[in-house]
Amino acid sequence: MRRLLLLNGPNLNLLGKREPDVYGSFTLDDVEQEVENVVTKNDCELVSKQTNHEGELVDLIQEAEGQYMGIILNAAAYTHTSVALHDAIKSITVPVIEVHISNIHSRESFRHQSLIAPVCYGQIVGFGLLSYRLAAEAIFSISK
């Protein structure tokens, strides 16, 4: 069976509690269910992980080669700081879609640059929970 990897980075375990004016009232469970709905329709299995640790994200990305048809990645704050994530994504052939709940380009200036965008297949920002569904649909669209 085909598998899709959903990776969420630091502080996303606090969705629904943390800055609801920016991130909405939905939870990480809601995110996972949103992606699961798309994955199930496409006869695929979803593996979902959340971590606050950069190295663990690097490990999960490196281990994805040959195991997953695609990765949906919300690297959260590491988006703007992590050369290690950039290099990990660059080292694999699995397509990675970068996702953000808020529009990072309309927020504080330090959030405008994504260090991972140049090595991701694409970037979806600013659509809230819908960002994740769009990313899942994109993975299935490019994997046909």
Overall form: globular
Ends apart, CA distance between termini: 15 Å
Given the helix and strand composition, which structural class is it? alpha/beta
CATH topology: Rossmann fold
Mean pLDDT figure = 93
How many distinct beta strands? 5
Helix content: 25-40%
Note the run of SSEs as H and E.
Answer: EHHEHEHEEH
**Main beta-sheet strand count, sense and barrel state:** 5 strands, parallel
Top CATH class = Alpha Beta
* Alpha plus pi helix count: 5
Number of domains: 1
The CATH architecture term is 3-Layer(aba) Sandwich
The share of residues in extended strands comes to 15-25%
The multimeric state of the shown protein is single chain
C-alpha-based Rg, rounded: 14 Å
What strand line-up does the widest sheet have? 2-1-3-4-5
Spans of at least 5 consecutive residues whose pLDDT stays below 50 are none
Question: In terms of topology, how is this protein built?
Answer:
Elements: E1 2-8, H1 20-23, H2 28-41, E2 44-50, H3 54-62, E3 70-74, H4 83-90, E4 96-100, E5 122-125, H5 129-142
Parallel strand pairs: 1-2, 1-3, 3-4, 4-5
Helix pairs in contact: 2-5, 3-4
Protein architecture, described:
This protein has 144 residues and is an alpha/beta fold. It has one domain (2-142): 3-Layer(aba) Sandwich (Rossmann fold), CATH 3.40.50. 34% of the residues lie in helices and 19% in strands. A five-stranded parallel β-sheet has the order 2-1-3-4-5, with helices on both faces. Strand 3, helix 4 and strand 4 form a beta-alpha-beta unit. Helix 3 packs parallel to helix 4. The protein is globular, with a radius of gyration of 14 Å. Its EC number is 4.2.1.10.
